[in-house]
Design brief:
- By secondary structure, this protein is α/β, with parallel strands linked by helices.
- Helix 5 crosses helix 6, helix 7 packs parallel to helix 8 and helix 13 packs antiparallel against helix 14.
- It binds 3-[(4S)-2,5-dioxoimidazolidin-4-yl]propanoic acid and fe (iii) ion (FE).
- Fe (iii) ion binds next to loops.
């Protein structure tokens, strides 16, 4: 369905937050206009500066609304079977996330539900969640595998992710996350799982063109840095970029390892130290901030936001939508949580779901409103961009433009 508007058109009468890296806060331009051609931005700026060659194009007024880049959710596990409401109850009765995982609940219980689902079923279950994101102005989503943990189901999850891109006007970047958890049949044999399932599944996914990137979960309840390294080595051989769930519950040096492999992002990072931050800065690895998991698990340790600022590490903000630690399908709520829980600024939060999220996905054609980027926008019934992070549970989206198509 990813159709593209061919004829040139002009959008006028808006307040524009370009989110370009340099310039005014939010890249704010009053009385702005955007010229769009063939699904791309031909020109954007103050209407008074509009070059004459665009002046005759058919124009559409935006009623003075705020226009931002389309939002990008750069970390989701939105394809999965079943749900974990029972585990939610158990945690309220006192069990911890790690205890539930070690007792065979947690991620592994979603694996059981995902293995019994068909690709059609996975897509049907995921679409309402995807639609919720799109209704908030999201135009690109990353989707991970990682609830199959056998070759067939890992591939089915990625096939479901590709199907979502065919069924909705949204860009999908897929991520192979075979190293997410050790399945029950490999209990205490994580190394054998990596050799016998994870690497062969990665090869198969790559062979079918199903994987745009490779991720892992480096944690005591999942995989050691040495095991993750083997997955990264194969990813490099296949020419696939890597990223990592790192330092979520403890500090194992995962972010540093990810940085050594030139990771696009390292995500969670609550337990990251300054050394790890420096390694990420040197590698240009984006920090994936996922406050939904912090909130759900009632974590106490905050990610080192000040150190990311100090060392110039870009921060992306994502939902981490998943059935266990972040059953959340609102990127706007993630922005609010990033501000309220982690003290990010509303401008950092908006950059986190636009410019920095694009970087975290290795995309250089979206995330800001600048010439030659895709015409992916969100149009909001708000006056100031800070309102996007400020409200809780309110969706001010007026409309979305995907490659120039409303
Ligand atoms: N960390 C997380 O927060 C999610 N995955 C991960 O590696 C949780 C996934 C789940 O609990 O189902
Ligand atoms: Fe995650």
């Amino acid at each position: 369905m990813n159709h593209v508007a061919e004829a040139g058109k002009l959008l006028t009468n808006m307040r524009l937050a370009t989110m370009a890296a340099a310039g005014a806060p939010y890249g704010l331009v009053e009385g702005a206009a955007i010229a769009i051609e063939a699904g791309r931005i031909a020109w954007a700026g103050a209407h008074v500066d509009l070059p004459p060659q665009y002046a005759g194009w058919p124009a559409q007024g935006m009623g003075g609304r705020l226009v931002t880049p389309g939002l990008i959710d750069c970390h989701t596990h939105i394809v999965f079977g079943g749900n974990r409401a029972r585990e939610f109850e158990m945690r309220l009765e006192g069990a911890t996330y790690e205890e539930i995982a070690r007792a065979g609940g947690g991620i592994v219980s979603t694996v059981t539900a995902t293995r019994t689902a068909s690709v059609d079923g996975l897509v049907a279950d995921a679409l309402p969640r995807v639609d919720h994101l799109l209704a908030e102005g999201v135009t690109a989503i990353e989707i991970k595998s990682g609830y199959g943990l056998d070759i067939d189901t890992e591939l089915n999850m990625l096939r479901a992710a590709r199907r979502i891109e065919a069924e909705r006007p949204v860009r999908v970047k897929t991520t192979f996350l075979g190293a997410h958890a050790v399945p029950a049949e490999y209990k205490d044999r994580a190394g054998a799982y990596i050799d016998e399932v994870c690497i062969p599944a990665l090869d198969a996914a790559h062979g079918e063109g199903l994987a745009d990137a490779v991720d892992g979960f480096c944690e005591g309840i999942a995989f050691s840095p040495a095991q993750i390294k083997r997955v990264f080595v194969r990813a490099r051989e296949l020419g696939l970029p890597v990223k990592l769930h790192a330092e979520q519950l403890s500090n194992l040096g995962g972010a540093k390892l990810a940085a050594q492999y030139g990771a696009l992002s390292a995500d969670h990072l609550e337990y990251l130290d300054e050394d790890g931050v420096k390694a990420m800065a040197a590698a240009g690895t984006v920090a994936g901030i996922v406050p939904g998991a912090f909130y759900t698990l009632r974590e106490k340790q905050l990610p080192p936001i000040d150190l990311f600022r100090k060392h110039g590490v870009a921060m992306a903000v994502a939902t981490d939508c998943n059935p266990g630690s972040s059953p959340m399908t609102s990127l706007l709520l993630s922005m609010n949580m990033a501000c309220t829980l982690f003290r990010m600024t509303p401008e950092e939060a908006l950059a986190g779901v636009t410019r920095s999220a694009a970087r975290a996905l290795g995309l250089d054609d979206c995330g800001t409103i600048e010439p030659s980027k895709r015409a992916d926008f969100a149009v909001w019934n708000v006056e100031h961009p800070a309102e996007l992070a400020y409200r809780i549970g309110f969706n001010p989206l007026h409309e979305r433009s995907f490659a120039g198509i409303p």
